[in-house]
Amino acid sequence: MFLNTFLKFLLLVFCFCQTVHGQARIINGTVSSITACPSCVYLANKSGKQICGGSLIHASFVATAGTITTAYTADLLNVHGGKSYQLEAGEVIPVTQIFYPPNFDAANFDWDISLVKLQNPFTTTLPVPAVINANPIEPYQVLAFYGWGEVTEGGKISNVLRQMLVSVMTPASCEEYIGPQTDAQFCTTSAYVGACNRDEGGGYFDKDNQWCGVDIWTYGCGRGYPNLATRASVVNSWIQSTITSNP
What we know:
The protein is α+β, with helices and mostly antiparallel strands. About 15% of the residues lie in helices and about 30% in strands.
């Protein structure tokens, strides 16, 4: 018993010492399409290389992971949307501003979210802003997650949008793996399925396709460890005030 507890402690220390970058992807997910998730977008640098996922939650704003965008200034980023395949043309919109909540704590991934403002709304009809689920999600609730991240740990990214189904964990169950969560965080899990590199910032969606939160961290890819996310219900007030204050 003592040895098992000690090994868990070492694993927790090791997990939280890992950098958030490159720690989240979809492993063993299924091929999807932009029609299943019309709010799904991704952030890329000016040369088109994908950086992370994102969710269009307003005509002019995309929600993503703050721990990812802190490495960039707005002028270095574009948002790609309206396509299932990365090699498709879709539509590319420059980012003009990046906003962070005052409670954002990158070291602990607390309130880990950023809003990137688009230079202009998408002109094609495929990208559709998601409705934000302002109600707290419940343990064991099934959510869908989408992304274009790596399909094997350390391997190639997916050219096509992929989907996985996960279950919301109880805080106590998640704590056994990665320690206590804050009020703004929740964990999801599914056997042999997980987010991976460049999936960070992607959104979790309920059965009504409402946006429930942002993927922010996991240990490795598809290793059976929880995915950590930011709760939409907790950060929604900040989202709404930021959008209203920056028309």
